[in-house]
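Q: I'm writing a short explainer about Monooxygenase for a general audience and would like to include a description of its predicted shape. Could you first generate the structure from this sequence?
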Amino acid sequence: MQFGIFTVGDVTTDPTTGHTPDDTERVRAMLTIAQHADQAGLDVFATGEHHNPPFVPSSPTTMLGYLAGSTKNIVLSTATTLITTNDPVRLAEEYAMLQVISDGRMDLMMGRGNTGPVYPWFGQDIRQGIPLAIENYALLRRLWEEEVVDWQGKFRTPLQGFTSTPRPLDGVPPFVWHGSIRSPEIAEQAAYYGDGFLHNGIFWPIEHAAQMIGFYRQRFEHYGHGQADQAIVGLGGQVFMHKSSQEAVKQFRPYFDEAPVYGHGPSLEEFMRDTPLTVGSPQQVIDRYGAMRDKIGHYQRQMFLMDHAGLPLKTVLEQIDILAEDVVPVLRREAEAARPAHVPANPPSHAERVAAARAAGTLPVAAVTATDHWTGRTAEDDVEAADAVTR
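A: Of course. Here's the predicted structure. Afterward I'll give you a sentence or two in plain language.
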């Protein structure tokens, strides 16, 4: 089972000091957090995508491309790539480039986002959110899987003889998750393609997550990708820890009370009761998140939000250390002990996907023999022409 952290990249005033980081400080803090998570031995770092204040991660592939060169082991992902308002042609190009740069040490999560105004900013209609997600992803798949694409749809101009470059690493596209909190259509989409489904219900009870994940599992089996319990599932969560649970609550309460996303609403205690937020000792986190398997079955990825609500960088790094040293080893051991032998332990790695494609005989012809669809020439033609000139 994989464990990681995700960031939404919010710029929030620290209520205990009054300090508000500027955008540059916040971006650099996110890079430090990802690098520290890699050094601490966590499995995944994911960044959100936002195009409005008070959030800064507007260009996930730029950030992840930098991290590909400054981390060693951690999987680089997104915690959401906006499939509705991004051009699927650009997504195909940018994430294939990231895949090549990272040598396959990446995946991504598609989502519709949670900011209504982003749709008109990028020339789209929020009322078309679901149709956009379905059509754009279908095109993205074709751009990765087919070398030459002729396409016509509803939401963008047609394509004729188009080849997205660079081609996916080893001819195998990145692994894709679909993230949704309340849209069964997105769970259906993930199941149809045999992709992963991540329910980041940080504001919802586990019972709601169980309903959505249960539906996805049923449809995954319906489409013939395997048994329902073999579907690839992820969860989102939030924690704040101290060896003393009382001290954890004392330290986190001012951040919770003033945070834009949940301050001035339900109390911290109510929020901990009704959502995955767990503020307490490492053992309380182990007990809470270990019990989630009882609700949704074995799952492959658990992501935690830790750098939000104005928490200072030093505190976030300390939280990552506690998670990596005191919590993850226990949760990983317990998950593996409870995992049925036929159920995947982790999401498929790039190497595993390449091996599966090779076994199925679905790897594409090597790019070196490909025809230039503008001139009709091949690389071999150009070599022969060069030889003729030199003779």
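A: For your explainer, you could say: The first strand starts at residue 2 and ends at 7.
Q: Perfect, that's easy to follow.
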